[in-house]
Design a protein that fits this description.
binds magnesium ion; 15 helices; alpha/beta; six-stranded mixed β-sheet; 42% helix; binds NADP nicotinamide-adenine-dinucleotide phosphate; Aldehyde Dehydrogenase, Chain A, domain 2; Aldehyde Dehydrogenase, Chain A, domain 1
């Protein structure tokens, strides 16, 4: 595949400071498809300087003009939609339909939404005798994961640019080619030099250097809770703004009045999509004891309809495949009952894991507590509504969830008792304008829509 051998800094592709490279692997066939440079602290420093230099003029650009730039960027991404989808399939392993509809479709909508918000957002408000100015925070250091390579980038870059911030991106080492295509789109859209900069590289090297750089005013990170904790500590020590979008272990609560078959089949599809590599996936299915056996049978049958290599792609790399298979073995060892899938890999080549469903999972088991990040669903039994609330809230996470009931009002009343950032009521659709982010250890801050824009703004009050 096509790859740049440099970093996109200050509006140009510059040679990397060091000689090291990262091999990009197709997880479906384990073949190396490209190499990209592995950035160092020196590359990060050059990128942050370029972003700082570009900041004053970009911050002073009228919001309507920033909106026009974002619209041009959205159009360039649209023009490249097929190429981006093919790249996401090649470096992440996403099935082509998923790549087109979700991996490309969603970020196009998000980019468009920030073009509109930049134009319509009120960057000034009146409170009594004060005029409050909402000003851009400054230079943003963005660190993104591989699970939705383009979406994770757009969900940070678009609101940052809309707010008037400039940005340096360190994308995941597993999916740098999508990030390079994004930089190409920024360039061809004619955005001013330095407002967006890209440094490919390894987390502990380039990512760490970016998070710790004193020229960065706000760090926005999406990824594991372990790395997020470290980045939060680094940012805290420097009194720097930080947004953390971390893991999840979300509950799919099926109340007795719900359409059981519909709730179960949606729940399984939600987890199997993207091979379970979605932080907001509903990986714990909670079913009333009287409906438990029927739900387990429905869940097993639904999972079996997701065929590896067809509806379900591989995991991103060998390490994630091993990690997920080890969790499945732990589930068996702790006494959960496999009703679909299992630890054996379905193919010799490619990092595939069989769609797996566990029954007889109890809330304290490892597989019910820890984020697995693979196509694995745990079905738990609850006694009554209070028990369901306690199980749903009984992890360190609080990112997403679902509630199903005969009536929306019953499901919504239950949802108020759940400590989590977003809940889908009776299969409610994903809304790319609604705030997305976590309670508890699922994170700090919100992405998407006007709430996502506000993360990149700080207030200045003028008293009259
Ligand atoms: P990760 O290590 O947290 O990676 C996320 C991003 O942070 C990547 O760009 C990574 O670079 C970078 N990074 C790693 N160590 C860093 C450091 N010390 N300082 C600064 N940046 C650093 O996540 P992962 O290893 O890809 O996946 C591990 C687990 O994280 C998954 O199993 C899953 O549980 C969770 N995860 C959650 C999400 C989510 O959306 N919430 C997304 C992906 C993964 P490299 O690419 O070089 O590692
Ligand atoms: Mg990592």
């Amino acid at each position: 595949m096509k790859a740049h051998d440099g970093m996109y800094i200050g509006g140009r592709w510059l040679p990397a400071a060091g000689p090291d490279t990262i091999a990009v692997v197709n997880p479906a066939d384990e073949q190396v498809i490209a190499h990209v440079p592995a950035g160092t602290a020196e590359d990060v420093d050059a990128a942050v300087r370029a972003a700082r230099e570009a900041f004053p003029a970009w911050a002073a650009t009228p919001p309507a003009e920033r909106a026009a730039h974002l619209e041009a960027l959205r159009d360039e991404l649209t023009r490249r939609a097929d190429e981006i989808a093919g790249t996401v399939t090649a470096e992440l392993g996403a099935p082509p339909v998923l790549a087109q509809r979700v991996h490309v479709g969603l970020p196009l909508r998000v980019a468009g939404s920030y073009a509109e918000l930049a134009a319509s957002y009120s960057f000034e408000e009146r409170i009594n005798n004060s005029t409050v100015l909402l000003e851009p925070v400054g230079v943003v250091g963005a660190i993104t994961p591989w699970n939705y390579p383009l979406h994770q980038i757009v969900a940070k870059v678009a609101p940052a640019l809309a707010a008037g911030c400039t940005i340096v991106l360190k994308p995941a080492e597993d999916t740098p080619l999508t990030a390079q295509l994004f930089a190409d789109a920024v360039h061809d859209a004619g955005l001013p030099a330095g407002v967006f900069n890209l440094v490919t590289g390894l987390g502990p090297v380039a990512g760490q250097a970016l998070a710790a750089h004193e020229g960065v005013d706000l760090v926005s990170f999406t990824g594991s809770t372990a790395v997020g904790r470290q980045i939060g500590a680094t940012a805290g020590a420097a009194i720097k703004r930080v947004a953390l979008e971390l893991g999840g272990k979300s509950a799919n609560v099926i109340l007795p009045s719900a359409d059981l078959a519909r709730a179960v089949s949606h729940g399984i599809a939600n987890v199997m999509s993207n091979s379970g590599q979605t932080c907001s996936a509903w990986t714990r299915m909670l079913v009333h004891k009287d409906q438990y056996d029927e739900a387990v049978a429905l869940a097993a049958a639904a999972a079996d309809r997701f065929v590896p290599g067809e509806q379900v792609g591989p995991l991103v790399n060998a390490k994630q495949q091993q990690r997920v298979r080890a969790y499945i073995e732990t589930g068996v060892a702790e006494g959960a009952r496999l009703v679909a899938g299992g630890p054996a890999a379905p193919f010799e080549t490619g990092y595939y894991v069989s769609p797996t469903v566990f029954a007889d999972v109890t809330p304290e088991m490892t597989i019910a507590q820890e984020e697995i990040f693979g196509p694995v669903v745990c079905v738990l039994r609850y006694e009554d509504e209070q028990d369901a609330v306690e199980i749903a809230n009984g992890t360190v996470y609080g990112l997403a969830g679902a509630v199903w009931a005969g009536e929306d009002a019953e499901a919504a009343a239950f949802a108020r008792r759940i400590d989590t950032g977003q809940i889908d009521i009776n299969g409610g659709r994903f809304n790319h304008l609604a705030p997305f982010g976590g309670y508890k250890q699922s994170g700090v801050g919100r992405e998407l829509g006007p709430h996502g824009l506000a993360e990149y703004l700080q207030t200045k009050s003028l008293q009259f």
